[in-house]
Structures are given as C-alpha cells and as structure tokens.
# Entry
Amino acid sequence: MSEFFREIGKIPYKGKNSDDPLSFKYYDPDEVIGGKTMKEHLRFALSWWHTMGGDGTDMFGVGTADKSWGETEPAARAKAKVDAAFEIMQKLSIGYFCFHDRDLSPEYGDLAETNAKLDEISDYIVKKQKETGIKCLWGTAKCFDHPRYMHGAGTSPSADVFAFAAAQIKKAIDTTIKLGGQGYVFWGGREGYETLLNTNMGLELDNMARLMKMAVEYGRKAGFTGDFYIEPKPKEPTKHQYDFDTATVLGFLRKYGLEKDFRMNIEANHATLAQHTFQHELRVARENGFFGSIDANQGDPLLGWDTDQFPTNVYDAALCMYEVLKAGGFTNGGLNFDSKARRGSFTPEDIFYSYIAGMDTFALGLRIAFRIIEDGRIDNFVRERYSSWETGIGKDIIDGKAGFEELEKYALAKGEVTDSLTSGRQELLEAVINNIMFSL
Ligand code: XUL
Ligand code: CO
# Structure
C-alpha cells in the first residue's frame, strides 16, 4: 500500500501561538471540556464524496484537483480511495467517515455486479477499520446522480424507478450495518419538483414516506439499531425540495408516523438556503427532540447556492455548539464535514489545510459554547425574561388552571400591562457573546 501524502505527517496540536499551518491551533483531541474530551464532543467525520471524489468540477469548468489516486481502472481506484481516505483520517485524527454507496464503488454493468463490487470494497474497509479503529458515522444511497433518477427516486412518477431505488437503498443499509454505521441518511436528492403543472404532489409525498417506512422495516429486521436521518434542504437540485427545512420535515414525519425512528441531520448551508440561520434549524430540531447529526459546512451569502465550503465562521460554530451542548451532545451523530475546498484550492495539502481550518473552527466553537453556558449571562437573561411564567397567572396558564374566562377576569382587574414588559437587550447580549469569544 502506497502512502499518498508523504510530505505530511500526523497533524499535531500545537496551540494558538503556533504558525505551523499543518498543526491544530484549537483542536486538542484529548483535552477534557466539561467532563468529555474534545474528540468525544465533536465526533468529526470525513465525507467520502467531497474529499475522495470531488475534483472541483463545476458548471463552468472541469476539475482542477487530481482525485484519481493514481489509478484509472474503476475498481482499483475505489480501493486506492480507501487507502487514501484512511491515511487522511489517521493523519488528521478524524474518527469517522460518511459515504454514499456510489462514492465507495461506482455503478458497473447491472445492479448485481454493482453490488458484488461494492461488497469487495466494503470488505476492504472493514479490514482497514479493524486496523485503525476508525468508524462509520452514517451511510446513504446516491439516488440522484444517474439519469434514471431525473424525476426523483422515491417520488419518481415511475414505479420501476421507485423499485430500483428501494433495491439500492436496501443494499446501502446492508453496507452501513456491515461498516458499523450508527446512522442512515435520507437527503432528498431529486425528491421535489420543477413545476406543479406535471406533479402529483400528494402521491409523491405518500410514496416518499412509503420508501422510508420500508427502509425502517427492513433496517430494523436486518439489525440496524442506529438513527435514520432526514437532511432538510429547500432547493437544489430541484426548484422545490420536499424536505424544505426542519419544521417541514417534522410535519412530514409526524403525518406518516415516522417520528420514532428518524432524527435530523442539519446542514449549515442548507439552513441558510432556506433563509434560516444554522442555529435556527438546530434549535427547531432540539426543541422538538429531533436533534441528531450535523453536516458541517458554510455557504457564501454573496453566492447564494450550496457551495459547501469548509466552515471557518467561528460565530456560527459557537452558536451551533451551544445548541449541541444544550441538546446533551451527540449520541449516534457527529460533525460530518460535508465540505469541499474551493476550486482554486487544488493541491493535496489543501485537503489538510481545509480540514484543519474546519476542525479548529468547531474546536473554537465548542470552547466558546462551553464558556457561554458556564458564564451564565445569556441563559440567566433568558430565564429572567420568562420569569412571569413561573408564578401567578403565568403558572396558572401553564398548569391549565386558567382559561379564557379566568384570563378575561384577570385582564379586566389588571388594566394596562405595558409596564410588565422589559427590554429585549439584543445589543447587550451580542456584546456579551463578543466578550466571551474574545477573552478565550
Ligand atoms: C447535498 C448534501 C448531500 C448529503 C448526503 O446538498 O448535502 O451530500 O449530505 O446525500
Ligand atoms: Co449534506
């Protein structure tokens, strides 16, 4: 087995004063924060598609980075990708990976052959996992790139396409179980529409739920004990993706009785495409008990599409990690870098610089979030702001002791209530966050 990145050794933690670009400044895997190591808190994962396959191709030009891993023949390349992926993860101290079936091994002549070739690769990955202790965070099926999925997979107007997708997902679940993955993701691929003029929305949504029900039934029978995730996204590739945002997905899961088995996989760039903040999507998931996993990346507000950039925005990462800590941390989930280096960042070292940037950003985010909670000013302010619900009429409403008649009596006796309001103090609270961030 050859070494792909001979010039690069294991990335050490050197602290914030180091100017070594191949070192972590803030991510110290074994440092304990609040009773858990940073490694346990953050559960970083490598995305097989961007890192091992993404060569910078965009709609204006061909790839700029060489991701052939020294092989031209597909099966040899798939195997070399495994070696390179494990080398990258070991050198970066990344404990998990996420995959689409076709990132691991491409399509061959027919489904049977494709499955057999995938088995060869997953056998090889199992061997590498045993040698290194690296785990699978989650798997998924690429049911959106082949022309057969042009109108969707679970929401295709063709029942034959639905059946093909089901067969593909069955195998992807088997592969996830084989690799010990504790998550299986449904990202809506082309499950959406371009125009309602040709779309039976009711049937498409029923069918999408049918496909997920089958996945749960089969997965549980086959021994999958982890979480199924839906990854919301409002648009791209279709004009309207059915899994628009977390709130929409919650309605879908509850309508179809899927809420027991599913959690959310929240992606930062998808949140902003939906005109939400990353923190908003996490908060909605957390408040509803559906927080699961995270696809860590960021968009560029001036570009406005799903650029999947490596996350470097510390502010957003801190507010993200605040939500994660408030949710009690990850159980089966983790932080998957669904991120790609920009097309102009095309050299092998850029893979390492990008991951170091992303990992250090979330390490800072964790450190700041922990300090925000420990500091208490934000949480205390919020508690105080809602203190009228702890006693008196507020408590009576919550306890179900006051209805419209009682409240009318109360309001008539009380008179004008503007006096009961206090300032929202947004600027003060933003300054508190700055104060905490910059005193690290
Ligand atoms: C697409 C996206 C996917 C999913 C997995 O926007 O985020 O890569 O994370 O299918
Ligand atoms: Co994603």
